[in-house]
Amino acid sequence: MKFAVGLLAVGLTLTACSGSGTAAPPPVTVTAPVSIPPAPTADPAVVSWVDGFCSAVNGYRKRTNAESQPGQPQPKSVAEAQKALSAQLGAFAARTGEVVDKLTALPAAPVPLAETVRTSFLGKFTTSRDRAAHAKTALDGAKPGDEASQTPAADAVEKAQQDLDGTYDPVAPLAESQDLLLATATAPGCKM
Asked: What is the 3-state secondary structure (H, E, C) of the chain?
């Protein structure tokens, strides 16, 4: 008897699932007009300022790479080492000084954040330039062959490089402003 009740239940279930044969309604297609907003364009004044800023900083990097001379022969005397270190300090002061001049020559920043970033970079490059220039002056004032004059000069090279920490990517600090970020995407000086 249980077997018959089970077969009856299966039969009813199969009958209920087969349906009445009505077709599903056709799918409804809704077409909405496509409206893509125009891409935002950067303000030309902002692009010009950002281009000048990025060009100054990236120019330093390009010039440093161009002037690096790997594989230079080791100086044979303390006097030769002094000359080589003096030349290195002079070149460093010139490169950082060029950035200081370019950042100083920029017009007023069109966005407040840009002025904050410029002031920060200007401070770092100025400190680095001054440190290298003062160390060169002290080294050049030492007697030729004075070994003790080299340690402070070598320390100044290292510290002058550390002064520039955080300045190698001019775009990153500008990214907090949508206007500046948009300008960096189109400014030629921001491309390396």
From this structure: CHHHHHHHHHHHHHHHHHCCCCCCCCCCCCCCCCCCCCCCCCCHHHHHHHHHHHHHHHHHHHHHHHHCCCCCCCCCCHHHHHHHHHHHHHHHHHHHHHHHHHHHHCCCCCCHHHHHHHHHHHHHHHHHHHHHHHHHHHHHHCCCCCHHHHHHHHHHHHHHHHHCCCCCCCCHHHHHCHHHHHHHHHCHHHCC
Instruction: Check residue 30 and give its pLDDT.
Output: 59
Report how far residue 166's alpha carbon sits from residue 124's, in angstroms, rounded to the nearest whole number.
Answer: 9
pLDDT at 75: 83
Contact 163, 99 (CB under 8 A): no
123-133 pLDDT tens trace? 999 999 999 99
Residue stretches of the chain with pLDDT short of 70: 1-39
Cα separations (Å) of 100 from 16, 20, 110, 119, 138?
85, 85, 19, 10, 22
- The pLDDT of residue 70 is 77
* Sign, CA torsion 48/65/89/120: positive
pLDDT of residue 6: 45
